[in-house]
Sequence to fold (697 residues):
Amino acid sequence: MKLNKTKINKNISINLSVQIKKAIGYRILICFILAISFVFAIAIDDIFDSLHQLELNLASQCANLETFIISQVLVQNEEAIQPKLDELNQKSVSIKFIWKETASAGLRRKLFWRFPFSWVFYYPITNIDNSKLGVLIVTGPLLYEQGMFSNLFTNLTLILLLFAIIFVVLFPLGNRIPQQLFIAPINNLLFLLRNGKSNIESESLAIMPEEINEIREKIISLLKEVENRSREAALGQIATQVAHDIRSPVSAILMLSKECIEVPENQRTALRDAANRIQDIANYLLSQYGNPMEESKEIEPFLASTAILSVLSEKRIEYQKSAITFSYSFIKDACFAFIQANLIEFKRMISNIINNAVDAIAGRGEIIIRLMKDETTLTIQIIDNGKGMAEELIKQILNNERILSQKASGHGFGLTHARKILKQYNADLKIISTLNKGTEINFIFRTVPSPVWITDSIDFYADDCIIVLDDDASIHCAWDGLFTSVVEKNPKLKLVHFSAADKCIEYIKGFADKRKMLLLADFELIKQSMNGLDVIEITEIERAILVTSHYENKDIITRSILLNVKLLPKVLASDVKLNLLQTSLSIEENKEVDLIVLEDNQEFSDVLAYLYKSRGKNITIFHTPYQLLKGIKNYSRHTKICLDYNINCPVSGVDLATVLYNKGYKNLYIATGYQLQQVDLPSYVILLKEKMELLQL
Fold:
């Protein structure tokens, strides 16, 4: 896995105003420096030209004096030289001529600058035989050369003018233009985003750049949309909360209605109908205001019963003003039956067929949905007492023939579409109909094994302490009603109820033998800092079931598996099987084996066990995460454990390896046919690229 070596510091904050001003300021400063450098170069060049011309002029004057000085030296009348020079010095107040009889060896005719504001010119004089007679020295101020002074003054004036233009005009202008065109409008956009309103007067908008103004209008539009969606989200949150608050009492009523056999049948039926009506309202609220499901094409196992109940609730609300009654009847084993299809497509199909049934009923009528299960199939029956269907139409549908129009009878197009969907999932369609009596539609799906994280039973021992944790008081009454007959037959069985998570944790931690405790916990505990899974994790209770309406939430499923907790859909709690285990719990001794393997493929497991044992070694193979997490405590922490990467559930072998490592197991391996590399795994897990490498462990 290659990583990008470029590191980005996300904490660096860049101020746009400062950046724009810096960028413009730097460019103005660079332009100023270049202009000054250019003018300075011209000035230096002019100075050198002026000095060169001065040197030529001085050499010419000294050449005129050279003949006179040589003649006076030859006649040995050197005293006449200085008066001549004094005469010249009197005529000029700027320069001075000086005669010096001795001259340094190697002295050449040259003009030198004398710091700070004067110069000196040396003019050596030699005899005809090149012998040194002396040197004529001329001194004067820099301003002696008028041309040089004029050029220097002109260049200095130009530099000052450039300085004034750049620093007095361009720099302020460089600040005002970005401030007016960019910084102020952008600051207004930021103010608009933070406060939801503009801080610019309406007349100022006319001078705002068109692009910025367009962005501003878009932001205002988006803010209005966000405000509207916030209201909808708040309404959805309230609706979701109301639905949650409704669902728990409804589940309690449904559980009680099945157990209260002393209540007359007609009253129990009325109670059940009222509960279903309330359940319909809760489901309708969630469908209308809850988080909308994305249109997914994923095919996966799901509970057919809960999907049908969800659609049925919507239809009861949709057709509440009609004279049609909706009812359902599920055989107990069918409640927990899983089929494999696209959930959204399945619900749409059921919805369309119910709509067809409604269209087929003129006036008062009844629609019944039944769910029946055998060893391999689940049958969904949708029965109405409408107009029925002609034999010819049924044949057209089953033979996939074209149907022109059947709107009058209420069937046809919906069934044609259903047949195409059923064919995708290897399901069957059967139609039984009699004209003027009604129609029975049968969808026959192949059942699939229930996911390992769903339970359809509550297993307990006669001397268990069953703890119920739920924030709804009605649920506690319902559990009491469900366990009443069992408790009467097993006096050592005890039910303890808690609404507060902290009190429940305190009770569990103080219990003498946690192996005799079974926790039935709701996931969502309103206005509490913990949820049901938090309680299970904190208490480290060995036996727990999460009773929740969030049984399809992937995050909750994943965490539940890693905590060795199964889920019970709360809506099906009244249909759960109570399974009294006869064998009491016993303390198992630590087992010694050479290798523990988690492998969900039964055929491969059998081959592996045979080959491993043929080498004289002991091996234990688990097929589900629940078997592994339940049984691992009986094995030494030095035991080698190899986990299949893909175990056909939302968690992977790597996730389970992390749980085992935290429990103290260090010899962990991952075996897979996937293209994994050792660097993709935690440091405490060793990769086996081929599953047959297990035989070498």
User: Anything to note?
Assistant: Residues 16-74 form the longest helix (59 residues).
